[in-house]
Amino acid sequence: xxxxxxxxxxxxxxxxxxxxxxxxxxxxxxxxxxxxxxxxxxxxxxxxxxxxxxxxxxxxxxxxxxxxxxxxxxxxxxxxxxxxxxxxxxxxxxxxxxxxxxxxxxxxxxxxxxxxxxxxxxxxxxxxxxxxxxx
Length: 135
Prior knowledge:
Keywords: Signal. The protein is mainly alpha-helical. The protein is built from five helices and two strands, in the order H-H-E-H-H-E-H.
């Protein structure tokens, strides 16, 4: 086993464990609740460039994963909250989208939304979505 194989093996293992967890529901709920504890996520969403508050897409049914990927990427670019947790969520959503896991959330690869919300609303959407799967 050489060192160049390690990242590949770890990534394969990650994919398998994600699939085994069927949508990683518990992990996503845990990470999302962690991010919701941050007070700064509640500021009002404004589209203006100078605003420190992010406006994130609130997905249409069937496009959740694409919007969750887009929203978490925006959070990372703008250092909205814990980068480590957000990175983990982003990677998980990306894998689910690419692998067509959680099919009900991944009808389309493009984020479709009618409204935008602040980070708290966005995170609550993630939470509600995965809690519904968990029932």
